[in-house]
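Tutorial, part two.
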Amino acid sequence: MLRVNVDPNSFSARDLQPAVAHLARGGIVAFPTDTFYGLAVDPTATEAVAALFALKGRQADAAIPLVAGSRAQVEAWCGLTATSVRLADRFWPGPLSLVCDAPAAVVPAVHGGLGTVAIRIPDHPIARALALAWGRPLTATSANRSGEPPARRAADLQLPAAPDVLILDGGETAGGAPSTIVDARGASPILVRPGAVAWDRVLHSLET
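Running the prediction step on this input gives:
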């Protein structure tokens, strides 16, 4: 595995180019987010997605969350409902994922055949910059084998040694609970997965 050190307080777009080039070759990139380290691949590349599932030992029907670099990127890629826009205004960047209809180009394994994706803008400069440098959203499943604890530091990553993994070492992440997942496409929002943002905060934000 190749490791690239990136200071989250003083990096440039050039520092991320090795990771972008690795993604373009179908590789996997481990990167820091506002919770734990995640694993990024191009969600439209079948072979890259298959390699990600194999690396994690993930069940084929388990959907993978995504991260984006900006709200404009999300809206251009999959769109947002009016309620989702209100939640994005309140909680992005941060650990709230919103369910959107998956673009046709997304590999079905990414959404587990559901036709939807959970996407967010993380409150971490490296994660956002990586998605912006790539030009569209990236996968962000936790950087660990399925069933194992997530990693707050690059040194804690317990991944099989493989040449298709590049690590962006951005130091220690905040940890905590995973992102809350909310489906706000219908008349009333639905809590899909509880997490770092309390459900009552989500509901309260829509009442004000």
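The chain has one domain: 2-207. In part three we will examine how such features are distributed along the chain.
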